[in-house]
Write the structure tokens for this entry.
Amino acid sequence: MQEYDVIIIGGGSAGLAAAIEAYKNGCEKVLILEREKELGGILLQCIHNGFGLHLFHEELAGPSYAERYLMLLKETKIETKTDTMVIHLSKDKILEYVNPKEGYVKVKGKAIVLAMGCRERTRGAISLPGSRPSGIWTAGTAQRYLNMEGYMVGKRVFILGSGDIGLIMARRMTLEGATVVGVAEIMPYSNGLPRNMKQCLEDFHIPLYLSHTITNLYGKDRLSGVQISQVDERLQAIKGTEKEFDADTLLLSVGLIPENALSLEAGILLNNRTKGPLVTQSYETTVPGIFACGNVLHVHDLVDFVSEEGKKAGYFAAKYCIDNPDLMEETIQEPITVEAAKGIIYVIPNQLYVNKLLEKQDFLFRVNTPLQEATIIIEKDGMLLKTIQKKHLAPSEMEKVTLKKEELEGIRGRLSFRIFAKGETV
Amino acid sequence: MKTEMICIVCPMSCHMEIEQAEDGTILSVIGNSCNRGDSYARKELTMPMRMLTTTVAIEGSLHRRLPVILTGEIPKEKQEEVMKEISKICVKAPVLYQQILKQDICDLGVAVMASRSMDCYENE
Amino acid sequence: MYDVVIVGAGIIGSFLAHDLSKYQLNIAVLEKNSDIAGEATMSNSAIIHAGHDPKTGTLKASLNLQGSRMYESVCKELGVSYKRTSAFVAATNHEEEELLPAMIAQAEERDIPCMLLRGEEARRKEPNLSEEIVAVAEFPTTAICYPWEIALALMEEAVMNQVELKLNEKVITIEKDQNTFQILTEKGNQYESRYVINAAGIYADEIYQLVTKLEKNPIVIHPRKGEYFVLDREEKTLVERVIYPVPSEKGKGVLLVPTTHNNLLLGPNSTMVTDKEEKGNTTEALAYVKEAVQKLAKNIPFEKIIRTFAGLRASGESGDFIIEEAMDVPCFINVAQIESPGLASAPAISEYVLHEILMKKEDQDQKLIFIQKENYLKRRHPIRVKDLSEEERNKLVKEQPAYGRVICRCEQITEGEIIDTIHRTLGAKTVKAVKKRVRPGMGRCQGGFCEPRVVEILARELHISPLDIRMDSPESLLLTRELWGGDKHAGI
């Protein structure tokens, strides 16, 4: 069995960054396994621009962002296998992949980086009522049909969910000659970036129905119509508020779920909120030597942050592999928990090893509702550590807080993040 | 007169406030994190500009479409016209990243360029 | 001139076609849809009930029992999935508990293995059974199957043995003159046959109506809709047995059913519908199902729901199957009102039609001659890469590299398996037909990732444009046009 230093599962933005960083940090045998026929991941079908502002200080189209990383990759001796699917992963870091050239092959990695990305929630996952004709896709599938395969998927389009992919597809379909008749969002606020609300909907006069969801679908063969209804505070449809639209196409942009079938097979524990692995500050999962980054860990809204996370995971994977962890680590210390308390959906990392604190420790989190003028409260072992004032917070925008080593030192039990909204009483 | 605006230049989405005089002259822009926000706000109130990305037909490569981007922004209301013009382009692989496919589209002073490279690909 | 025309290619029509194809007879099957097994056969609980439940003296009772005993060997012969899981009938209170002994007695009378368990004992076997369950009747011979796979395998073998399968052929008139039927389809095709077997599922009443002179059609179908959830597959499903509530007058109730591919089905409810095309899901029914299954089991991972579906049961007024030669139309055989346990009974129903009806005809003019074919062909079992040993898999990929390219990541289906299913005797021509046969799209992404690739493979293998690939019916368009570009430019 071939052995590698670091094996990266997934050649998208997270995987490419992880591989390059692992290589730069002294790992010679680095392998990327990618399912598609070329590297780049979902960026390749995201032909719109807006990528790379943080990392490259310019605004790139998705494929251009990937191209930059592929150019960096070319300068390394990283081995890559495309058209290759990883079908098994075990906790002793042996994985099995398959491709048409080599067949089924088992390889071992001293360290493994999970970078499989995520999948879209489907009609089934949200149990949409109504008939089951053709013409209903997730926004990402439609995006692939248009941008990679070159086919239109419909003429009159309705979009459920105001996630960014849905908004981007509203504009894309419109520019290609389709009519987007409306977008419905079950929440009372949009889930997309304001920039996409503006330039994808407003610019094209596409109506957005907040606090609305689909209550029926029509059509026996191809979709013929969509019924939406307003929802109450418990997100239940209100009778008598139905609106009907003629539409031959429904695109769903109702959320993304980290793709963790392999992680589960390897016995990695997942976080209930993120649906991704539980990780420490070194992006290590609950299985030693297996790291996770990008959308397989938690769903991001900016690819720059995915690359940044990939870079970190790659760095720690390299460190793990060079430090020969089988010899160390045995001074086992229980990690402390990073808690997402009131108003916060999750915080990454989920666990912190006090003996391995970094000089600067980033914490990424999302709030569960949009807020103006709110305070982020960070507590260390139940004592106030820090407060941060925020003008504006939204679930669709990931927040980042950096704590210094000295701030965290001495922590024993728990680091907790919560939100204090304006006007709230203690 | 004050106008609130969310900057759309990048995904940072800065919340900005623009103060205008009676005659429309922009007096101040606040809330932006970079200069691009400032110029966006000024332009959006006078002549809104947009970047346009789409695909063109490509032959002899793995994919049937090549993603393209403009080298600069165009007036918002010109998007349809430019789309129509770009749709006439058909290229052959190989194409280089940032290769210019058409100069001065619709006489707007911007070019259409490939947003990725695309090699030749033989179908099995 | 055909000897027999079967109307309807569900599980019943498929068994009949298969069993008749063993004899030297000319057989045609007319199916209104673009693929077989698309109605009740596609939307049911996929259980081979042990046979304890139907009322004594009914066709349902005898054929269910007989059918359930035939399935294992039928499935093995065809190379399709079958798994004996056992089943619990779970009582949630003492009133229900009191009904269990009678159920056990009826099963024992029919020689069906069964036993009575206390709630605690039952929970030891099924730890996720609800704490409310006080007692359970267990039926170890209960099994699960993959219904449309069986129908497809049966029909494939039938077609290999000269049965003519005509798809997209909706029967609109049937006339009988002397000893032959003239059958006309919507497309204008005419079929002439000595016998007609009506296996048209929920449309069986309408098919019989075409030919009967009776004032009151004895077949009356009141379709009852059942809605289901499908949960993502897991190494070990929440429950390993079929879990039934204690049945009521309304039927078997809402169940938890593990599937042959390690998914879990929750459902069905039961509501009368008047429109036979009404197969949509409703918020109310789905909420009802969710509530009902929680009386039977705990820890149900509803976040693992990957799909909902609904099916129509061909429920009749009489409460029993109707399997007989029409009294007013000789040689017209009705196989109607086949609701639950129709799937479990299917092989026995077919045998009953052959042995108790067709072979017993004595009239010299009408009688069919049953001579077995000498060179009956068996189907080639499809390769399931997942089931092969490492060595076998690698040998296969070396010979046919397409078996090394995974197209469906959720169910790990290779391009080789998809290509094979397109080119088989009953070749898949649509996205849904591929999905039914080899499962890409059945997993958690519901085709999000693999559908474009399946479309591409279908187009390539069938030498047609992706624009001509349909989801299912000829009207179920997927792609509407090519994007404008180059010489294909059409102007915006």
About this structure: The domain at 335-426 of chain A is CATH 2.60.40 (Immunoglobulin-like). Chain A has a mean pLDDT of 94.
